[in-house]
Amino acid sequence: MPFFKCESNHPISFDQEEIVCGLREARRKWRTQQDRLHEVGGRHLPSPSMIDEAMSQLSGALFPMRLGPDDLLLENEDFYVGYTIGLALNTLLTQVKYEVHHHNRNKEIDSEELNAQASDIVRTFAKSLPRIRTLLDTDVLAAYAGDPAARSVDEILLCYPGIRAMIYHRIAHEFYRLGATLTARIISELSHSATGIDIHPGAQIGAGFFIDHGTGVVIGETCIIGERVRVYQAVTLGAKSFSADDDGNLHKGLPRHPIVEDDVVIYASATILGRITIGKGAIIGGNTWITKDVPPGEFVTVLSGSAKNGSF
């Protein structure tokens, strides 16, 4: 016996005209509000869905025999890489053009000059891909060396969310560094949605970075992380406070996140806040709350008493 019986096939009225008028009025209020960065008519912004497609293609081009198509043969590897990079870069070029034009929408700059700026960004990014691949190899090896459960580097590459997050971050950081900050942020949020790992594209991360498990990790925009650093799930490298001007508007871009030196290990649910330095080789225990510098080689835990009242 059916739970629900439709008595009529006639369409139901939802008062669309009233809804459309209400939404138009909401948009009007938003666009005319004082001190608001006004929207511009038309699309004119990078598309997350198009960038997502390009990122899938770039991942395959960086690791063709593992993240490329199932039927790829070794003898066709270079052809696939070249063809796929071409597709991805042309897609990204279109998206960066949207960003550059939008960013300069209130300036009197010739359209061809803006297109040339976008082309320079994507061309420079393209040349960085071999370097990005080399950095990612160090991340994969760090994960294999740091996790006794890993059976192979292939398993690391195919299964570990921390590696996927780093593939996206290494690419996003390059776009961020080149000035395509909105494109970079979209890439980082695609990764965040897929992995639960939130790395701002501005964060500077050295070689051999390993995120174990990964869920809930947060790494802020102005973090500087050295080489061979390992972090576990739910670690936060965040800001302690946010300075504002006389009108209450937050200052943007100021250094406000931690510096983590080489060979540091940060265990699960540790929270490290502010522009402080975690010295080389330090070990930060789980569930600690750190707001002061930690000397090189220090072992900080709540249980040992090194961190009094949950903070160091």
General description of the model:
With 312 residues, this protein is of the alpha/beta class. The protein has helices at 16-32, 48-62, 64-67, 77-103, 111-127, 129-146, 153-159, 161-177, 181-195; strands spanning 198-199, 204-205, 210-211, 218-219, 224-225, 230-231, 236-238, 259-260, 265-266, 271-273, 277-278, 283-284, 289-290, 299-300. The strands form 3 sheets. Strands 1-4-7-10-13 form a 5-stranded parallel beta sheet. Strands 3-6-9-12-14 form a 5-stranded parallel beta sheet. Strands 2-5-8-11 form a 4-stranded parallel beta sheet, with no helix packed on it. The mean pLDDT is 91.
Estimate the global geometry from the Cα principal axes.
Answer: globular
State the helix count: 9
Order of helices and strands: HHHHHHHHHEEEEEEEEEEEEEE
**Oligomeric state of the chains in view:** single chain
**Helix-and-strand structural type:** alpha/beta
Q: Over the alpha carbons, how many angstroms does the gyration radius reach? A: 23 Å
Share of helix, binned: 40-55%
Distance between the termini: 65 Å
Largest sheet: 5 strands, parallel
Calculate the mean pLDDT score and round it. 91
The proportion of residues in beta strands is 5-15%
| Secondary structure tally: strands | 14
Strand line-up of the largest beta sheet: 1-4-7-10-13
Question: Which spans have pLDDT < 50 for at least 5 consecutive residues?
Answer: none
